[in-house]
Each structure stands twice: as structure tokens, then as C-alpha cells.
Amino acid sequence: MKKEVKSQAALEFLTTYGWAFLVILITIGALYYFGVFEFSKFLPQKCIFSSQFECIDFSFVGDEVRLRLINNIGEEIKINSFDVTNDAADPLSCTVPSPVLSWQSGDEIEVSFTGCTGGAFLVGERTDAKISIKYCAPATTGCPEHTINGKIIAVVNPV
Amino acid sequence: MMTIKAQSAMEYLMIVALTLGIIVPTTYLFFRYSSESSIEIIDAQINQVGRSIIDTAESVYFSGEGSRIVLELSMPKNVVDINIVANRELVFDITSQIGETEAVFFSSAGISITSDDTSSDCVDNGNCVLSAIAGPGLEKIKIESVDDGSGGTEVIISKP
What we know:
heterodimer; A: Immunoglobulin-like; 2 domains; 9-stranded mixed β-sheet; 9 strands; rod-shaped; B: alpha+beta; 4-stranded antiparallel β-sheet; 8 strands; 34% strand
């Protein structure tokens, strides 16, 4: 009789624990599903460029990547080409802006990549864009080409 | 008796879970912040090194032939190579979390910079290798004003 009572208590104890664990697991699963554990959203939105090409403003709006850069290199330069991508399985692809024939030292330019597709570029999602700029200094003989890379991490805003 | 044990075990688990719930996201956020800050620090270091070399080259040039300065500069580990392009541009090849990129520093018009590279590309086109000073840590860099062989002056950047 005494043994039966003990085993019943043990079973009830285990059952209660089992229910408790089940409830906890379901709660954690639900929180994960709703993105509570996506800690990266607590990180600031950033535009990382060399100080020679200071990034003063940036945004992801609709299907566009926009940024404003200052020429801090101390020379007039010519932008030969722009490129944008990211590390997603289906990488970001956009229509690139036209080359800039003359960008004076200290001047600002606005760069807009339009019609962006892929690269997890969805409204409300935090994503990144790797920007590559090829440029040269006309004052140097032969205008040898150089590459500067930058990165924008931001949330895609609706239009 | 068993209820008390179960309660304390549950309390223990809750405290551990709460502690982990605080530590894990905080650590993640800290590492992300610090990695982004390190890019800015490297950029500032390279700018300081590049500007020092170019400013010293200009000082040495205007001090006249034969003048020499040895700089001691701390080179960041992300600098994989250094080159002189067209006797005018000092180019740092950098690798960081945002990929391979370049930092370019221009000498003033009329000041020709070169290195101790004896290859034909350096001699003929002014595209000289300066890999010897690209290693991480403290580097001594000799900047010397010499005769360019055509009646003018050029500045040689090399490892002493």
C-alpha cells in the first residue's frame, strides 16, 4: 500500500514536470517564431565606409539602396563604376547608377541603386548591402583604377 | 520533503535560465559592436600611417637632396600590401570584414615618390612594390630625398 502511494506520487511529480517542460518549450518556440530572439534588430543601422569616402546618410527604401558620400580623399576623382551585392544565397542585385565623371574634393554625391531584387531585401527586414566603387584620379598619369568597398546594414523601409 | 526538493530544483533551473537569457544576447551584441568598431579603428590607423608617410615625403623633398627621415609607425595587421603607383599614389591593400579594399594617398603635384624596387615596372612606369613595410606591428620607414638622374629630386620610401 505504501509502495503504491509512493509510485503514484512519483508519477504525478514526473507528469507535472513533463507538462511544465512542454509549456516552456512551446512558449520558447512561439517567441522564436515571432522573432523575439533575433537580437540583431537591437543593433544600430550602420554605413561602414573608409573615412576617405565618408558615408553621411543612407537608407533602404522600397527597392532602392540610397547613400550620400563625401570625397575626403583630397583630390578630384572619377568614378568608373558602382556595384552592389550581399552574402545571401540569392545575392542582392540592383540597377547601378551612372559613372561620375568628376567628383571634386570635399563634394557630396548621392548614389541610388534602383530596382533591387534578391538578397533578403524585403520591407521590414534588416539586411545588408556591400557597395563597391571603382575610381581613379585624373591628375595621376594613366588614371590608375582603385577599388573602395563599403557596407550598409539597415532595415528596409516602405516607400 | 520531495515537494521542497522539486521547488528548489525548479528555482535553480529558473535562475540558470534567466542568467543565460541575459548573458547570451549581451555577449552577441557586444561582439557585433566590437567588430564594427574595429573596422573604424583600422581605418583611422591606416589614415594616420599614410598621411605621415606623404607629409614626411613632402618635407624631405622641400628640405633638398640628401635629407632623410626615418619614421617609426605602427602598421595594422589588415594591411596586406603597399605599392606606389605612377610615382604619385601610395596604395595600401587592406582586407577587413567588408572585403578587400584600398586606401590611396596622393603626393602633391610635382613630388615624385618611389621605392628601392629595381624592377623595370618601377624604373620605367613608377609602379613600385613596398611590401617590405606592410607587415603588422612597429615598422621603421626611411624616407630620403635623392637625385632622380635628370637634374630633379625624387623621394625614396624604403625599409632602412
